[in-house]
Amino acid sequence: HGARLSGWIAEAATGFDKIANEEGFIVAYPDATHQQWDDGRSQTDNPSYGIDDVGFMARLIDYIDWKYHIETSQVYVAGYSSGGMLAQKMGMELGGKLSAIAEVASSLPIPQLQLQKTPARPLSVLMINGTQDRAFPMAGGTTQIIKVKVGPVAPIMATYQYWINANGGAGSLPPREDILQKVKRGTVVNLLNTRTRNGSCVMLYTINGGGHTWPGSEVPLRYIPFLG
Description:
Radius of gyration: 17 Å
Strand order of the largest sheet: 1-2-3-8-7-6
Helix content: 25-40%
Number of strands: 8
Distance between the termini: 18 Å
C-alpha cells in the first residue's frame, strides 16, 4: 500500500483476491507502521525512517512459509507509490528470497538509487507508470502529495535502467517496444521490455495520461483530483 493507506485498501484496490482464488496462490497485505513504510528515502523525507520494514517482510515470508508451506522459489512483491519504493528496496536487500518485484506509480528514491546495490540472484522487475503522475513524474524530482513529501525521486527511465544494470546489463537481444491500446477507453500504453544478461526481464508499461493510480482498480482513486 501507499502512504496514508493500508493493507485492506491494497486488497480492495488490486483485485488480487479474485486472481489468487482462480490461480491458486497466497496473497498477503501487510500494514506499515503509522501507514508509512521505510521505503529508502532519507530521514528528512520519511517519518518512518529507521523502521526495519525489509526485515519485517523477510520474517513475514518465513512465517507464511512455516504456516502454509509455500513454494519459496515463487515469491513476488508488488507495491503502489511508497509501497513500490519498498518493493524495490526489498529487491535490492532480499533478492535471495524473491523471484520478481513490481512497482506501480513509483520509482526509486535518490538515496536508494545512489547505493547501486545488486540483487543476490537474477530478479525480474515490472514497472507501471503514468505520464501525468504528479507524485512520481517521468522526469523525476522533488514532489509531495498534499502534505506527504515524496522527496527526491529518480526519473522513471533512470529507474528502469538501474534494474537493467543491476541484472548484469542488457542481453544480446535488443529491447522490445510495443504500443498497446485498450479500445474501450482508448488509453494508449507503451511497453518497453528488456531481457538482461542474467536471464531476468525488466518491463516498463507507460500509461499515456495516467496519474498516480493503480490502473484498472475498482477503488476510484482516479476521481481524487490531485491523484490525476
